[in-house]
Amino acid sequence: MPVHETDVCIIGGGITSAMLAQKLTELRPGLGIVVVEAGNSIFDTQNRLKHRQRAMDYGEHPWPGDFLEDQQASGIISMTMAVGGLALHWGGACNRFSEEDLRLKSMYGLADDWPLEWSDLEKFYCEAERRLNVSGEASPHPEDRRSEPYPQGPIPLSYNLQILRAWAEQSGLKFSPLPMARNLTPFGGRGSCCVFDTCGEVCPSGARYSPDFTFRQLTQPKKIALHDRTLVRRLVVHDQKPTVVSAQAVHRDRPQEPIEYRAKTFVVASGYCWSSHLLLLSASSRFPNGLANRSGMVGRYMNGHKFISAIASIDDQTFAGQNMTHSLISREHFRCRPDRPFVRHDTRVWESAVGRDPRLRAPDGRLLLGDELLADWRARTKGSSVRLRAYVDVHPSADSRLTLDPSSRNRYGDPMPKIEQRVDDATQAREAATREHVFGVFRTLARASNGRIVSSNEGDYLDHPGGGCRMGVDPATSVGDSYGRTHDHENLFVVGAPTTPTGGCTNGTLTFVALTLRSAEAIARATRS
Amino acid sequence: MKRRILLQWLAAAAAIVPLERVRVWAQPRDLTPASIDLLHEIAPTVLPASLGADRLRRIVDGFVEWTRGYREGVPMNHGYGHPRLQRTAATPVARYVEQLTALDADARAKGGPWRSLDLDTRRGLLDAAFTKAGVRNLPQRPNGSHVVADLMAFYFRSSEANDYCYNALINREVCRPIQITTKKPAALG
């Protein structure tokens, strides 16, 4: 059996793993670090333009080989399992949460407080923004004070977004360009943005940060070892002590030959789904409920935020297609006075072509052809469509769970995860009022420029999911401490999304990275002891 | 080799060859010259004739090139939220040829070749063909449902068509300096 001995074994190869590995190499040069990832390394940046073109022309997936067909979960939001993880094709949104997210219990009597101070997290937000080279503009709200400016100025607003900002601000809300991990000038071995405008699928220039760049930069000078196509199936605990001694894995090309990783410190950086899954899979006679699960909290409090969207139609003229992936954000409703009914959400505005794209039939059903189709299309492009969306703060219940599903197994016979998200009673009780509030905001926005809401919808899952290994002070109600060090195993950490007690009301990735960078310092300290 | 052994060998080989693949291999990979000619004939009806004959010819050529570049069984974008694995279908070329042959026959049944029919008759033929093929809306991109709807999607969903519609140089999804996007798009020359 191949055995690899190292100082730190990081399980999972997504954005938090990349950030953690990078920071550990800086804090502890020479530290032995192995990153083990079940999926492929897709480092062929030279092919990305071609893949993008085929995705646009034929609908082909722009990341060939980024998933494992037999390693999927019920309730998962993306099939991607590869070096880089979901951040291979994230949009690059880098919003911070706000102080309220960390104090829900003490401010509002809701959900739980996070076991760390905002001022502590804020400095790691700054570090995350530096590493991701975030482009942004200071918030107009004094509560959003920053200890450092953004490393880059804001992404220039397209003509369309300038029009839409003027329109949206007539509502009284203040809007800013969305902070994004998108290079305006070359940085970190990546190119600058030239508005390919497919950030959420693939960025051929590399302007939008993706972790594959970091991994290449770490592996080429051999600062870390990256073992891809290698699935960690179980963590094994010492016979007498509560320390993890090894990770048992298998390489996809040599399934008959188990691999063992021995390390002083193990870090599970496998995201919101596969982190809890691995801990549950690692059950043994001594730990029948899985590792780090004395509290029974592993796989519980799966979180995220609800989302409500609408399309507004306005008279102001825009030109659909200028920069569709950039948007405006208002943080006005991040805050809620404790003496008012609780509702928190962000408010986002995009250009849109919804309802103003070419169509085959006139409203009376007549088939439109050639120049008459064009004329119909042109007539409908007078004015603009605007896409609106709110990510709404909702709170998970304890039975918002990831469990092992014995009816679904991978090629090795391991049960796959099943995720069933549920919100708590308080969230359910205020659901109608929350919806009414958000649609009220949308209607207020739409009032200017003779606007009106023409369609709306509500998401049926929680976006930017986290949880399953939530952090906390009390070992009876949490899996790890504020650094992700598990209460039950002193050399086992969980980092990033799984550790969040609640999912906030805006994109989560920056927060997952900031928390991980904070964990990195504790992990570095642990490797000294 | 004795005849019996040869027959046994052929039978065994037939049993292990996936018939589905044989069927796929048997599919024509290219549109026939007659089909391409008919597409050129149909183009001024279904694409903006205001683009001019040269441009229309190039759009049809581009669509024919699209059919040649089609790959079967390739994983498609598996999406976000409720992901699922889908693969690209078999090449639509055979269906396209059948559909064009049928359109030609239907046109002749109405009195002559496509170019000789009036617009309403052409519209009626396409309406019936689209209905039969289950085409209700303009596809987001060519999807193999009907060759003419796909030709229309090939053009009308393009960045070039978007510019033509707005009469503005927007260059949607075309690499360009970000500062350009901060200005009102210039009118097409």
Please specify the SSE layout and strand pairing:
The complex is a heterodimer of chains A (529) and B (189).
Chain A: E1 3-11, H1 15-27, E2 33-36, H2 48-58, H3 99-102, H4 104-108, H5 118-132, H6 159-168, E3 176-177, H7 211-219, E4 225-227, E5 230-237, E6 244-251, E7 254-268, H8 271-281, E8 300-314, E9 328-330, E10 347-352, H9 370-380, E11 384-392, E12 401-409, E13 415-420, H10 425-429, H11 431-447, E14 452-458, E15 463-468, E16 492-494, H12 509-528
Parallel strand pairs in A: 1-2, 1-7, 2-4, 7-16
Antiparallel strand pairs in A: 3-9, 5-6, 6-7, 8-11, 8-14, 8-15, 9-10, 10-11, 12-13
Helix pairs in contact in A: 1-7, 1-12, 5-12
Chain B: H1 3-16, H2 19-26, H3 33-46, H4 53-69, H5 93-109, H6 119-133, H7 147-156, H8 159-166
Helix pairs in contact in B: 3-4, 5-6
Unreliably modeled segments of chain B = 19-24
**Main sheet properties of chain A:** 7 strands, mixed
Strand content of chain B: under 5%
| Most residues in contact, chain pair and counts | A-B, 57 and 61 residues
Q: Tally the helices of chain B: what do you get?
A: 8
Question: What is the helix/strand order of chain A?
Answer: EHEHHHHHEHEEEEHEEEHEEEHHEEEH
C-alpha Rg of chain B, in Å? Answer: 22 Å
Given the helix and strand composition of chain B, which structural class is it? mainly alpha
Tally the beta strands of chain A: 16
